[in-house]
Structures are given as C-alpha cells and as structure tokens.
Amino acid sequence: MGLLVRREHSRKELARKLEARGVEGDEAAATVERLAEAGWQDDERFATGLARQRALSGYGPLRIRAELSTHGLGDDAIRAAFEALAESGDDDWLASALDLVRRRHGPGVAGDPALRRKAADFLFRRGFEGDTVRAATALDFDEA
What is the pLDDT of residues 71-103, one digit of tens each? Predict the structure, then answer.
C-alpha cells in the first residue's frame, strides 16, 4: 500500500518492486491482483495519468506509446490512455510540437535549413510523427 500511496504503478512495476523488497514472485503477483480487485491499482488509470503527464511535458505519441509499453501495459490500457488524452484535448500534437520549436529555437526555423534540421531531430527524439515534425518545422512564426 505504501508504494501506491506515493504514486500510481503498473501491475508489472508494482510486482517488481515487491519482489525487490523480498516478497516471493507468486505472493507478489497475488498481492498485486488483490490490490487491483480492490481498486487500489488500475493499469488504465496509471496509463492515463502517465500519458497525460508526458503529453503536457512535450512528448509525442510515439514516445508515450513506447513508454507505456515498457510498463507492461496492454493495448487496451494504452488505447484508453490515448482516448482520455483526446477527450481532454491534450492530444494536439502539432500545437505541442510548435510550442517546443518556438521555445527551443525561436523564429526563423523555416528559413534556416540547419536550424530546421536541428528542430526536426529534436522533435523526432521527443516522439513526434513525421507529418507533425514537417508541419512544425515548416511554419514561419513571424507569419503565424
């Protein structure tokens, strides 16, 4: 319970932490299952919270999806997380990419090929899709 009070955890992460504290694998799995049945642990809630946090921190959908997968979350939980982002309006990937480019590189990105490449590389590392990166680096902020 102490682990879940601090923050949400995925089932995989919670079981791993219990095992690291000396709880045997079968007992850790049973404990995680009981916590999930009681509503203390929920993979969809964890996925939604993590996806929202990463989206608001300027990460793109590819990076968020990859991170959710590393937590052992299934396709249903990941899909639910992205649906929650869409419902709350936190999935405007182009606006997020534009904001990152504007803050990091300032105006003139569209007219400077070297700066444009640098901005594109940054957005790709952040997990944005190609179409979003092209649109965000082609916009001239002075005209926007």
Answer: 989 999 999 999 999 999 999 999 999 999 999
Residues 14 and 36 in one domain: yes
Rounded Cα–Cα distance for residues 131 and 120 (Å): 11
Domain count, the chain: 3
Q: How far apart are CA 13 and CA 78, in angstroms?
A: 16
Domain that holds residue 61: 43-91
Which pTM was predicted? 0.83
What burial letters (b/e) apply to 61-77, b meaning 16+ CB within 10 Å? bbbbbebbeebebeeeb
Give 97-137 pLDDT, tens digit per residue.
999 999 998 877 888 899 999 999 999 999 999 999 999 99
Residue 7 contacts residue 71 (beta carbons within 8 Å): no
Looking at the fold, whether 26 and 49 belong to one and the same domain comes out as no
Both structure tokens of 40? 């203390």
With beta carbons less than 8 A apart as the criterion, state whether 60 and 123 touch.
yes
The first and second tokens of residue 12, run together, are 């995989």
Q: For residue 102, give the amino acid letter.
A: R
